[in-house]
Design goal:
single chain; 363 residues; alpha+beta; conserved putative lor/sdh protein from methanococcus maripaludis s2 fold; Elongation Factor Tu (Ef-tu), domain 3; OB fold (Dihydrolipoamide Acetyltransferase, E2P); 4 domains; six-stranded antiparallel barrel; four-stranded antiparallel beta sheet; 20 strands
């Protein structure tokens, strides 16, 4: 006859390894979708009218400040310079004559051999000659400036677009668009933040979300859509003055260095914004399980019962998963033997330790 079940003894509770969450201050980052923009955009237009005689750049080329882009027909402007120089010579001759006449009449008037009114006329002629000389010099400077403007040069370094006119076309001063130039180092990255995010950034201990003149803003990191890591760094340099009434967001802008000119204006990227150092609880990523209600971790109560905790998770930090909410610092989290634990069942808790590694140490 078989002995009763009580004599055989109840099945023992399966062993699991438990540890309290690792409490540590972690750097909090918020991710946004950003759009890359040039730090400057210049529309190249002629400052004088004329006929294009030569295009000196290749479409889409990188240019430096002062590089020659277009040349207009210089002959009309050279004629204007020569004419202005001739007029300057006539003005100088008139001034010399007026000065000589004043010098000649001064002693005659002093000795009363000439009337005072004649002297007034000579002085007036001298002042007119001086004014005429100044006007001639200004006209020469303007003619020389127009001659200089017949060579259209890059006002700053960057990349030019394609040419909009070819050699032989007539262009109009200030009207005809010749090409565009964009500055690529650094670039701007624009993003939108919600009102709640803006208030959190503005009140963070790090501060600087709305930088003052000459100050560096909050740190940002950037990755392109085909990159796995945030390999580009920059700083927030501008925050808009008002929220958008339709979306409830506020526009921010970061400056990111682009020495290799790899970041292309118009493309999208993921922008990670520094939101401050905050205290957080960390558990091994392997200790997080999922069900239909979301993500959770399994804990063991003092009487050995497995109790699930629904949690809100954050990013990975040194191989450990940040738990934003749903877990208390004194909770004993199952970090080993998860396959032997079921919610509501009894287990035998063995102490372990959570360290800064992907897995907890639990021999």
């Amino acid at each position: 006859m078989a002995p009763p079940a009580s004599a055989q003894g109840a099945p023992s509770a399966p062993p699991v390894t438990v540890a309290t969450p690792l409490s540590r201050s972690v750097t909090q980052w918020d991710e946004h979708t950003g759009r890359i923009e040039p730090s400057a955009r210049v529309e190249i237009r002629p400052r004088v009218s004329g006929q294009v005689t030569q295009v000196h750049f290749r479409d889409g080329a990188l240019v430096r400040t002062g590089d020659l882009l277009f040349t207009l027909d210089r002959r009309p402007f050279q004629i204007a310079v020569d004419s202005a120089r001739a007029e300057l010579g006539r003005a100088e001759a008139r001034l010399t004559l007026a000065e000589q006449q004043v010098q000649r009449y001064t002693p005659l008037v002093a000795q009363r051999f000439a009337p005072e009114a004649e002297m007034d006329t000579r002085r007036s002629s001298l002042r007119e000659a001086q004014a005429g000389l100044a006007a001639a010099r200004a006209a020469l400077q303007q003619a020389e400036l127009d001659l200089e403007f017949s060579e259209i040069r890059a006002p700053r370094p960057g990349r030019v677009s394609d040419r909009r006119v070819d050699a032989g076309n007539l262009v109009q001063q200030g009207t005809t668009l010749l090409t565009t130039l964009v500055a690529l180092d650094p670039v701007y990255v624009s993003f939108d933040a919600s009102e709640a995010q803006y208030l959190r950034y503005a009140s963070a201990a790090a501060g600087g979300f709305r930088p003052a003149a000459g100050e560096a803003g909050v740190q940002v990191q950037l990755r392109l859509l085909d990159e796995t890591g945030f390999g580009h760094e920059g700083r927030v340099d501008f925050v808009d003055s008002t929220f958008d009434g339709r979306s409830g967001t506020i526009r921010g802008r970061a400056v990111v260095a682009n020495p290799e000119l790899f970041l292309t204006p118009g493309s999208f990227a993921r922008l990670r914004l520094f939101a401050g150092d905050v205290p957080a609880l960390l558990v091994p990523d392997a200790a997080v399980v999922a069900d239909q209600s979301g993500r959770m971790v399994l804990t063991v109560t003092p009487d050995g019962t497995v109790a699930p905790r629904t949690v809100q998770l954050g990013p990975l930090v040194q191989g450990l998963r940040v738990v934003r909410s749903g877990l208390a610092p004194e909770d004993r989290v199952i970090i080993g033997g998860l396959h032997r634990a079921r919610p509501g069942s009894h287990v035998t808790a063995e102490p372990g330790r959570i360290g800064p590694s992907p897995l907890a140490s639990a021999e």
